[in-house]
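Subject: Re: docking follow-up (calcium ion)

Dear J.,

Thanks for your patience while I sorted out the input files. As discussed at Tuesday's group meeting, I've set up the holo structure prediction with calcium ion included as the bound ligand rather than trying to dock it afterwards. The sequence and the ligand SMILES I used are pasted below, so you can double-check that they match what you have on your end before we go further.
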Amino acid sequence: MLYIPGGIFRMGSDRHYPEEAPVHEVGVDGFFMDRTPVTNRAFREFVKATGYVTFAEKMPDPKDYPGAKPEMLRAGSLVFTPPNKPVDLRNIANWWRFTFGADWRHPYGPKSSIGGLDDHPVVHVAYCDAEAYAEWAGKALPTEAEWEFAARGGLDGAEYAWGAEFTPGGRHMANTWQGAFPHENLTEDGYRRTSPVAAFPPNGYGLHDMIGNVWEWTTDWYSAKHVGDAAKACCVPQNPRGGNEEGSFDPLQPESRIPRKVLKGGSHLCAPNYCRRYRPAARHPEPVDTSTSHVGFRCVMRSAATP
Ligand SMILES: [Ca+2]
Ligand SMILES: [Ca+2]
Ligand SMILES: [Cu+2]
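The structure tokens for the complex came back this morning:
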């Protein structure tokens, strides 16, 4: 793990999506953070040691999904399944398939495996799986403020984790999507799907893959906007914990009672024509029971003890 010094920074952005606004000052205490997302190799150690079974490997309980078709209530996870031609970008069902038998060991469906992917981030982990791993490792999951502070690498207010330009000198600094999402994946950065966790340069704090590769879970309940600056300069919030559970539900799906956490950093599916969330300020709501082929996590340690 690496030590992140903490301090006061400008969280959020006023230049992009509404959920990132408003920019506001926030303080975080110093903490240690994993240098990379948790890999398949590390997650396998956890499963070996504990016999842990992830959410995606379990049969869903019909009580939790009123109205769901019985034939859909099988173990599985969401796999990115690209169409071969342009599709309506308003309907995510055009590229996300709930795939029976997809889980962390079978990232693209039951016939796939993680052979050769030891150094890739673990995927198909729901929030409870990330939490269970962190607890086993004697660590914790980051808050959104900790995560964003760390992602900025000391460049307060910069657009990207590495500075002002997306591809400085033409160089790709993270695993994102080039081409027209979701049918045209040009892989100019070298990777069609996930990438080995240190394949791209670290940020100013030495952290790899904060941006792109996989989205990362944080502990904050999602809220559609940030809270603005306190009226008095005295009162910069220290170690904020985000919204509340009740406020995190999806207003567009009032029947769903699954609360949502904040994901950070974007993934290998973030594309200029669809989702420009390859920035420290970007955020995305994810229901706690949802696992996909582009969401992973990394851990922090807040105690004074050296990891
Ligand atoms: Ca890529
Ligand atoms: Ca990431
Ligand atoms: Cu995205």
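A couple of observations from a first look. The longest helix spans residues 40-50. The mean pLDDT is 95.

Let me know if you'd like me to rerun anything.

Best regards,
T.
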